[in-house]
Design brief:
The protein is of the alpha/beta class. It is built from eight helices and seven strands. The protein has a four-stranded mixed β-sheet with strand order 4-5-6-7, sandwiched between helices. A three-stranded mixed β-sheet has the order 1-3-2, with helices on one face. A hairpin with a 3-residue loop joins strand 2 and strand 3. Helix 2 packs across helix 8.
Length: 210
């Protein structure tokens, strides 16, 4: 019996609706295949300047959120798992879970709430939050989009310093943090269990080929 467990960060792929029927979507199947390969042969490495910016500025992003919300999220370390999923949230407090997402530039930052809500759904941060709330038993998850000047060393040939650094610094900090609130919904956790059972059946067939 294959004990496939989705990571919270890839839950949205598992939960994508298939084009027809109630089985697994193509996105879910691709994610399960990658997961099996990683388990068997080691993790694949994804690198990009967008990810690098988020990693380099994580502490600064937390400080920015702290300044605006008058509370300082505490960095959390340690992966949790239950029978169905696993995950490691960024910031944990007694009452909530929080996550910062560093936007690459002014034109990718959601200045308007409706755009922030759309971005959360598009990137699957809503499902990621549901997974974290289930694992850590919290009632609410905050996704904070934060716009900070891009570190100079990440700027490419076509990235202008004026656009990525100077213009950003001119915008008041409180306009450079946009927060989306995700409420815990236990009915969605039931759906995750159903999809995970399908994923395990699918994985059990695939594993014979590896």
């Amino acid at each position: 019996n294959i004990m496939f467990k989705a990571r919270c960060s890839s839950l949205h792929l598992l939960m994508t609706k298939p084009k027809s029927g109630t089985g697994l979507s193509e996105s879910a199947k691709s994610m399960i295949k990658l997961s099996l390969i990683e388990d068997m042969y080691g993790r694949t490495e994804i690198k990009s300047k967008y990810l690098d910016k988020g990693l380099m500025l994580e502490d600064e992003a937390i400080k920015a959120v702290g300044l605006i919300t008058a509370r300082q999220p505490k960095k959390h370390v340690g992966r949790l798992s239950n029978d169905w999923i696993s995950g490691e949230c960024d910031f944990l407090s007694a009452s909530c879970i929080e996550d910062t997402k560093c936007s690459w530039s002014i034109d990718t930052f959601p200045f308007f709430q409706e755009d922030a809500e759309k971005d959360v759904k598009k990137a699957g941060y809503d499902w990621q939050g549901q997974g974290y709330m289930w694992l850590y038993d919290r009632p609410v998850h905050y996704v904070h989009f934060v716009l900070l000047p891009t570190p100079y060393e990440l700027l490419g040939f076509n990235d202008s310093q004026e656009f990525h650094i100077d213009l950003v610094e001119k915008i008041p900090l409180k306009k450079r943090v946009k927060t989306v609130v995700i409420e815990r919904d236990d009915k969605l956790h039931e759906q995750i269990i159903e999809k995970t059972l399908l994923a395990r059946e699918y994985a059990a067939k695939l594993i014979l080929e590896l």
